[in-house]
Amino acid sequence: MAERGLRLLRKLGLVDNRHQFQRTHLGILVPLTRMPTENESMLIREQIGDVKTQLVSFEETKEIVRTLQASLRGRIPDGLIAKLPKSFDVIGDIAVVDLPEGLEQYSEVIGQEVMKINQHVRLALRRSSLVEGTFRTRKFEVMAGGGGTETVHSEFSCRYQLDALTVYFNPRLSRERIRIARQVMPNESVVDMFAGVGPYSILIARQQPRSTVCSVDINPSAVKYLKENIFANRVADRVIPMLGDVKELARMKLRGIANRVIMNLPSEASSYLPAASQILKGEGGMMHFYTFAGRDEKLERIVESFRSTVESHGRRLESIRFCKVIKEVAPNRVQVAIDAFVGARIPR
Which domain range does residue 88 map to? Predict the structure, then answer.
């Protein structure tokens, strides 16, 4: 039955080969690239019976790396095979690759192989700069394929239209986004301080329809796509897009409105803690704070620095609910997530 199901799912282009299948006592869990359409769901039920689609975390497969190395052996020098990227991002139908030094002249052939391994990818891009500037964008070079840098990325039944050149989007934070979204309670007011095209905001609104989310970004292109995505995902009644500097908005429109703030700007989040403190309601609420750190840096030291900054701006840090490294961003550099309940203002 599983083999019959896999043949059909592959024919429909639904199987996500970047992640490993799972076996459970109930059967086999197959990672999908997107939600099946209504017609596809009917066809699946007709051919393989009653199946369920559910949210599951899958491990990334090692097969892609092995396949890339095998397919390029003999086409690039043996001494460079070990330098091939161990993983790459896929945003919609665009692959985004970090190409180590020494492989630049083989960019096109590597890009072509990436597209062969991921058959739904139509464009392979090489990152050619760090995230930079007020709008958090980066430069890319085309390795192979074509069709422009605008795409639609699917994640947890939500669809995000975006342009990889003009907005920031990180597909590797999908697990983190669902972790936060599942914490939001009915009737909460949430402020997504650096919303981008809406992956936190829209997922929260879909997961908790009785919440309200103010989605702020300073990048006009991001807010343009954010507005389109709000309507495409049918959450216009509970997600409010706002273009502007969140520090300015915190002093005016957003002051004291939120039960929960999301601070997904790890390079500068500490400097926005005063704004986050202003945005939280008087009695306090949750802060979801992200920062970069050295791989060997103690989490206790990061928490203490966070506590000191919060309390220096007039709020009590009541408790740390979560503190963990969520991903590696560079050799010896990681991203850390902190969930903290921040209490009422400290009397002066």
Answer: 63-148
